[in-house]
Amino acid sequence: MRARSLKMQRTYRQRRKLVAELLAERPVCQRCERVRSTQVHELRSRARGGSILDEANCVALCGDCHEWATEHPTQAALEGWLLHSWETPT
């Protein structure tokens, strides 16, 4: 595996800090609102032009809801858990 560049190392340090802050601020899953949030999901993926450092592009989800959003992209998009490149996070 290739080593990360210094720029990517810096980005992922910032990402870890953002994830810790979001999970502390939003301790309950934003989708099911029943269990503890443990993961941060990007509404717009990096492949679609999203930023992993933009707090407006991130939601705190439990593992099950994050897996569901990944495995059911059409339904997740209809419910607002995935955005297309032309949509803006609210």
Rg for CA atoms: 14 Å
Q: How is the biggest beta sheet arranged?
A: 2 strands, antiparallel
Structural class: mainly alpha
Number of strands: 2
In whole angstroms, the N-to-C terminal distance is 37 Å
Biggest β-sheet: strands ordered side by side in the sheet: 1-2
Structural domain count: 1
What's the rounded overall pLDDT mean?
93
- The helix count comes to 3
Uncertain runs: none
Provide a short characterization of the protein structure.
Helix content is 40%, strand content 9%.
Please tell me about this protein's structure.
By secondary structure, this protein is mainly α. It has one domain (about 5-80). It has three helices and two strands. It has helices at about 5-25, 65-70, 75-80; strands at about 40, 60. Strands 1-2 form a two-stranded antiparallel sheet. The longest helix has 20 residues, at about 5-25. The chain starts with 5 loop residues before the first helix and ends in an 11-residue tail after the last helix.
List the helices and strands and how they pair.
Layout: H1 6-25, E1 39-42, E2 58-61, H2 63-71, H3 73-79
Antiparallel strand pairs: 1-2
Helix pairs in contact: 2-3
Keywords:
90 residues; mainly alpha; two-stranded antiparallel ribbon; 3 helices; 2 strands
